[in-house]
Amino acid sequence: MRQADWKTRFYDVFFIDSQTGWAVGNSEGNSIKEEFNSVIAHTSDGGQHWTSQESGTIYPLRKVQFIDNQNGWIIGENGTILNTKDGGKNWHKQQSNTLNNLFDLHFFTDKVGWIIGDYSTMLHTENGGMTWTSKRAPAKETSLRGLHFLDQHYGWIVSYEGNIYATTNGGHSWTNQKNNIHCELSDVYFVTKNLGWVVGDKRTILQTKDGGMHWNYITEGSNQKHETSYGQKLKTGDEPLHSFILFDLCFIDKKNGWIVGDMGTLLYTTDSGITWRHQRGGATQLPGGDVVLQGIHFVDKKTGWAVGEAGTILHTQNGGKNWESQSSPSHLLSGMHFSSSEIGYVVGDRGAILSTNDGGSSWTSQDSGIMECFGATYFVTPKIGWAVAEWGTIIQTKDGGITWWPQKTESSKALLDIFFIDGDTGWAVGNNGEILSTDNGGKNWEHQYNTTNRDLFGVHFVDSKTGWIVGDGGILLNTNDGGDNWKLQHHFGEQWLADVFFADYRHGWICGVSGLIYHTSDSGQNWTKQKSHQDNSLNDLFFINPNEGWIVGGHGTVLHTINGGKVWRPQQCETQFNLNTIHMMNPKLGWIAGDLGTILRHKVIGPI
Questions:
Q1: Which residue has the higher pLDDT, 122 or 229?
Q2: Rounded Cα gap, residues 504 and 468, in angstroms
Q3: What is the predicted pLDDT for the residue at 34?
Q4: What distance in Å separates the CA atoms of residue 354 and residue 372, rounded to the nearest whole number?
Q5: Tally of structural domains, the chain
Q6: Final residue of a domain: which of 302, 325, 348?
Q7: Average pLDDT of the segment spanning 264-293
Q8: Which of 83, 226, 381, 424 would bridge 232 by S-S if both were Cys, CB 3.0 to 4.6 A apart?
Q9: CA angle, corner 172, sides to 168 and 174, nearest 5?
Q10: Read out DSSP for 332-354?
Q11: 253 and 398 share a domain?
């Protein structure tokens, strides 16, 4: 079983030196119950190894700060304040006297600190948090999001409503600094009482050189600037890279700083924030590059960490020229294909492609060159294969994934499944009734006409002429001429049909929402409902002959039949996460992939 190192949405990271650090957040899962658990990760060797520390709370944790390697605080949702005096071996709750979500904190010493949060929450302590006193906020009914104190006199706060507040007397009074920005602001950072920065939604970066009396809108007109100056390539359609939110920033001195945000955004500056360039996200388009990054911290010009969703922990030792992952990501995995018992490929969200050449004992990330979310993959040999994704994306490899090349389509739809009969003949299906076909290995992809505009989720062919497609609205399409003509063979009512599989010309199955399984033994002319005894969504199926097959679905569901589906029996599974795709080589060997980076291998050793 392959699992992500951290099934976590990390919100923040803090290092006290180059070796000792913490990252905080909450669990990711398929339900509110699974996500309702806080996470504290700790390292004492620069992130080579991360271990879990017990928080004692279920609420998501938003910010962490240490003043030395023993004394630290963590804040989070539902008024959570945690304190440790032994480096995190033991975390103790402190009384906040509020149930409001807390977003940022700043400690000067082991005694004096500030916390801000929702609904104008502002807390102050002068005894290390033994008691927290509510202070009058600079405005009523506002969500305070970012906080930074330069010293015990000069401090700044930014709000969700787009305001910037400053104090010069240690928080006794606050002044609203006008900035003419009308969007969410996330964080603020100052290196002197005059020089500081603010980041927020719509790629907002503000800079001041006079303590906030005047704010310079650095990224005004940034869409054009990113194309002409920063080298960020425009995307087709709605240009999804041009609307990101910036969450956190860190400066190590007056010149050098970094910012993180959604869509993989990691920006840096070497000129006090006058210009910003991508180190990740944007034009770099690294595998999984558009994961949301929410926290960043540097201890010097060279050494830093960034964290985010899907258990992401990134580390640099050269100022961000190179970022390496210190965790296996927990991306949703959506498609899988094995070309032999040893060689297989898995695709998923954020441009993720994983490959194995040892039957799944180990997996290696490949550079897909894109950041779109994949729907499926198909290989006709161990080296030659395709993968489909959003925005009409189809990529191909001829060298086992060492390089992936985009193939031209005239589609802008999300493509959700792909199937090839041989190295030339294939089909891809997707949203809004999209059906594409090729007869030359993808050099040309042509639209195939059909009468539906419903989303299409699964496609299967038994030869170059005969195939079936299923989709939303309970539709089943069939062709006997390679797709020149698609007809509605059956309508199952308003039901979500996820996949279709034919073991031969006559015997086929369909699976879908709420445990649906349908079976035909006459090429789809008639269908009968089979009992799954499941309420979970069934997402993918695979048969090795007309009798033996498997189905996978929500909450770790694995079903197996040896009599063509007359009886489906649940199989023991080591996970409760959603399972999305399955590939079986034979009754003794197969693989399953699903949410949060889960990959399972079924391998029978010796006689059954």
A1: 122
A2: 12
A3: 55
A4: 15
A5: 2
A6: 325
A7: 74
A8: 226
A9: 60
A10: -EEEEEESSSS-EEEEEGGG-EE
A11: no
pLDDT of residue 127: 96
Contact criterion met (CB below 8 Å) for 75 and 102: yes
What is the tens place of the pLDDT at every residue in 566-602? 999 998 887 778 899 999 999 999 999 988 788 888 8
Q: Using H for helix, E for strand and C for coil, what is the string for 549-579?
A: EEEEEHHHEEEEECCCCCCCEECCCCCCCCE
DSSP for 488-531, please give it: EEEE--S--EEEEEESSSS-EEEEEGGG-EEEESSTTSS-EE--
Cα 152 to Cα 114, 121, 131, 422: the distances in Å are: 10, 19, 19, 70
Question: Are 272 and 389 in the same domain?
Answer: no
Nearest CA among 220, 228, 170, 164 for reference residue 196: 164
pLDDT of residue 352: 84
Q: Any residues with CB less than 8 A from the CB of 597 and at least 6 apart, and which? A: 2, 3, 4, 7, 310, 311, 328, 329, 330, 331, 333, 348
Q: Per the domain annotation, does 255 fall within a domain?
A: yes
- CATH code assigned at 157: 2.130.10.10
Tell me whether residue 108 is in a domain. yes
Residues 439 and 338 in one domain: yes
Task: Say how far residue 561 (Cα) sits from the centre of its chain.
Answer: 34
Q: 242 by DSSP, 3-state: which? A: helix
Q: Is 281 helix (H, G, I), strand (E, B) or coil?
A: coil
Q: How many CA atoms within 13 Å lie on the side-chain side of 98?
A: 24
Q: Are residues 469 and 522 in the same domain?
A: yes
Q: Are residues 318 and 354 in the same domain?
A: no
> Do 103 and 204 lie in a common domain?
yes
Strand runs labelled E in 209-303: 216-217, 246-251, 257-261, 266-269, 277-280, 293-298
Q: Return the number of other C-beta atoms located less than 10 Å from residue 19's C-beta.
A: 15
Within 13 Å and on the Cβ side, how many CA atoms surround 152? Answer: 8
3-state secondary structure of 33: helix
Domain match, 440 and 549 both: yes
Q: Say whether both 168 and 283 belong to one domain.
A: yes
| Predicted confidence (pLDDT) at residue 608 exceeds the cutoff of 70 | no
Give how far Cα 378 sits from Cα of 16, 184, 197, 420, 423, Å: 47, 42, 47, 7, 11
Residues with Cβ < 8 Å from 425, sequence gap 6 or more? Answer: 437, 438, 439, 464, 482
Residue 269 lies in a domain: yes
> Which residue type, as a one-letter code, is found at position 270?
T
Structure tokens at 332: 């949703």
Residue in the structure block whose two tokens are 């006079």: 210
Give the full edge-to-edge strand order of the sheet including 257-261: 246-251, 257-261, 266-269, 277-280
| Residue 268, domain extent | 8-325
- Name the DSSP letter for residue 263: T
Residue 390 pLDDT > 70, yes or no? yes
User: 244 versus 257: which is more confidently predicted?
Assistant: 257
Among 541, 534, 521, smallest CA distance to 592 is for 541
In-domain check, residue 1: no
Question: What's the alpha-carbon Rg for the chain, to the nearest Å?
Answer: 27
Closest CA to 333 of 293, 297, 377: 377
